[in-house]
Design brief:
mainly alpha
Length: 465
């Protein structure tokens, strides 16, 4: 445990150092930064100093970037760090987090790391400050806002808790977590005012029975969340007893995933893969890949929401596009590696083929789709993409063979069959075989008038006639 203190409680020599740093803040901010960081390292509980340091770091970063949007860390296939609510050495983690922040004050994961470590050390206000900084860097991060609301509630600041709940609902009007957060804050306010713990029946102090039921339901939600935290603690204790048991790593990853903490979910799988028994476990590799892709998707969603709220902000648009591109780069590098190491796993070949097709690399994707047909699960999809790739290369005769094969094999007019017949019609159209094309388009039209632009094609044909 580390006690949180103010600057006035520090050693007089340290106070004098800080006063000198304050005076130099305008003329020599780098000097001030160095002094603040050095004293904080010796007195990590001084929240007032930590705030001064962070304010200066953010100001200097803003001067060298285009506003706070430039501080946001860029998504990469980043090495996720084991940092969590059950850290063995939270004091060391706290120090490590400050080192990472010093390198890049826009590193949201580092601020999260700091908040988690502070919470483990009983530094509740410092934990709040860490989450507030993430909010300052990325105000639309819903996951952080929810954690911040919980942190405010933990320190008894119900007004800010309710304000955070309202903020979340502005971003996502139907967010159940925000409603739950405000209910819990309302319960806390009412309990403080009415001293329910001294009452034999707190229902008598409520306005009506409906409100009582609503508050009880909110309480159940809190217990469920706490229940999951307890499962994490239990799984962590088992892992400490049996660090070589891969099941404990999987269990911890699963619990963190359900808890909404993707970073720790990924980190535990990465740790499992470092174990001797986990190095050759393909299921762990696949688990890490899927979790990481989910992490990328979350980041992309956050940037997309920010862009729709600020469509004229070129920085946000650029970051959104970069996040999408980084996901593609990660996915492609992973699939290329998997195909190279497991050449007979044709499911991976299909996935890589789709990615290459989307990149318009039709030549390279052909071989993958040809081989992917050996996998029964993706065979029909592989044939469809193979036909599309031939078509995009203007090998229409070869494409027609694939689409006719699907047209024959698939008995019901599902989406895949409609796609195949539509693509078949487009091939005939490109070959100036209008009548053959119309016969195919009519089949789709008679089944689904809203499919792509088939209605426009049919109408144009009859209007011309």
């Amino acid at each position: 445990m580390i006690k949180e203190t103010n600057i006035s409680e520090l050693d007089p020599r340290q106070i004098r150092q800080l006063e000198a740093a304050d005076k130099a803040m305008t003329s020599n901010p780098s000097y001030s930064l160095e002094i603040y960081a050095a004293v904080l390292k010796l007195t990590p509980g001084c929240l007032e100093l930590r705030k001064k340091l962070r304010m200066l770091q953010l100001r200097m970063a803003q001067n060298s970037t285009k506003g706070l949007s430039g501080l946001l860390g860029k998504v990469t296939a980043a090495p996720f760090m084991l940092r969590g609510k059950n850290d063995k050495d939270p004091a060391q983690t706290l120090s490590k987090a400050e080192d990472l922040i010093e390198r890049s004050v826009g590193n949201a994961l580092a601020h999260q790391m700091l908040a988690d470590a502070a919470r483990n050390l009983g530094m509740k206000q410092t934990a709040v400050f860490g989450l507030e900084t993430i909010r300052q860097i990325n105000p639309k991060d819903l996951k952080n806002l929810k954690q911040l609301g919980d942190a405010y509630l933990e320190v008894g600041d119900t007004e800010k808790t309710i304000a955070i709940g309202n903020e979340i609902q502005k971003i996502n009007p139907n967010d159940g977590d925000a409603e739950d957060l405000m209910k819990r804050a309302s319960v806390a306010v009412a309990m403080n005012k009415g001293k329910w713990e001294e009452s034999e029946d707190f229902r008598n102090q409520l306005k009506d029975e409906a409100e009582a039921q609503s508050l009880e339901q909110a309480s159940k939600t809190v217990n469920n969340s706490k229940g999951l935290e307890e499962l994490i603690r239990q799984a962590y204790a088992k892992w400490e007893e049996e660090p070589d048991n891969l099941n404990h790593y999987r269990q911890l990853s699963d619990y963190y995933h359900r808890y909404g903490d993707l970073e720790n979910a990924i980190a535990w799988i990465q740790e499992a893969r470092k174990q001797e028994s986990g190095k050759a476990d393909v299921s762990l590799e696949e688990k890490e890949r899927n979790l990481t892709l989910e992490y990328f998707d979350d980041v992309i969603d956050q940037w997309e929401k920010q862009y729709h709220q600020n469509p004229n902000d070129s920085g946000i648009k650029s970051s959104w596009e970069e996040a999408i591109n980084n996901r593609k780069l990660y996915q492609k590098s992973q699939l290329e590696s998997l195909v190279q190491r497991y050449p007979n796993d044709f499911g991976y070949r299909y996935e890589l083929g789709v990615l290459l097709f989307e990149e318009e690399d039709y030549e390279t994707c052909l071989a993958h789709f040809q081989l992917a047909q050996k996998n029964a699960k993706v065979r029909l999809d592989a044939i469809l993409y193979l036909g599309r790739a031939y078509s995009r290369k203007n090998f229409h005769d070869l494409a027609i063979e694939q689409f006719n094969l699907l047209k024959t094999e698939i008995q019901i007019m599902d989406e895949r069959k409609k796609e195949a017949i539509y693509e078949l019609g487009c091939c005939y159209e490109s070959m100036n075989k209008g009548e053959e094309a119309m016969e195919e388009f009519k089949l789709v039209y008679s089944s689904d008038i809203s499919f792509r632009d088939v209605a426009d094609k049919i109408n144009a044909f009859y209007n011309k006639g």
